[in-house]
Write a structure and sequence with these properties.
With 212 residues, the chain is mainly α. It contains 9 helices and no strands.
Length: 212
Amino acid sequence: MFEPGSDEVADGWVAGAIGGSEQDRERLVSILTPRVRAMVLARLAPAPSQFHVVDDLVQQSLVDVTAKLRELRTPTFVALRSFASVIVSRRVADYLRDAAKPEGMTLRLSAADSSIVEWLSRSLPASGRSPRSAAARAEEAERMLLELGKLKESQREILTLAFFDQLSLDEISQRLEMSRPATSMALVRAIRALRARVEGSMGSWSPHAYGA
C-alpha cells in the first residue's frame, strides 16, 4: 500500500531530500500523504466526531516530517515510515487531548481516501469477496474504522502500528516496550478481537503478513 516502485527508488528520494533536493522532497510528500492520512484516520477511530480535522492533522504531520528529515538516523524509506508514525502519534494525541469534541458528526471517507478504501477492501473482504462498487467499498472501510475505535486502547494501538503504519513486528515490540513473542501474541489477539466485531457484516479478515 502507498509504496513507490521499489525501496531503492524511495531510499534515493530520502537521501536526495535530506541533501536539499526539492524535487525529491515533493516525491516523498506525494507517497507519504496517503500513508500519513491512513495513520491519522486509524488514530481518530476512537473519536469519529473529530474526522473533520483529518486534513489539518495530515498537513501538520507532513510539515513536521519534512522539517525533521535530517534527524533520521538511517536515510531509508523504511526508517522514514517509522519516523512518520511517531510524529503522527504525537500530533493526533495532542489534538485529542486538547480539542473540544462536537457532537453529531459521523465518519465519512472522502474521495481523497480512495487508496485507503481499496487497501481496506482487500484486507477485509466481505464474504470472501471485495464489493464491486466504490460506494460499497467505502462503506466497509468506514465501518471497519469505527469498529477499530471500539476496541481496547492497547488492541487499537497495536493494530494501527501493524496495518496502518505498517511497522515490522520488531519495530512494534520496540515501540511498545514488549518482547517479540509477547508482541506477536498481542497482535494476534487484537486481530481476533476486531474480526469478531466485523464478522457477519463484513466477512473475515485475514492479514496473512502477521500470521493471524
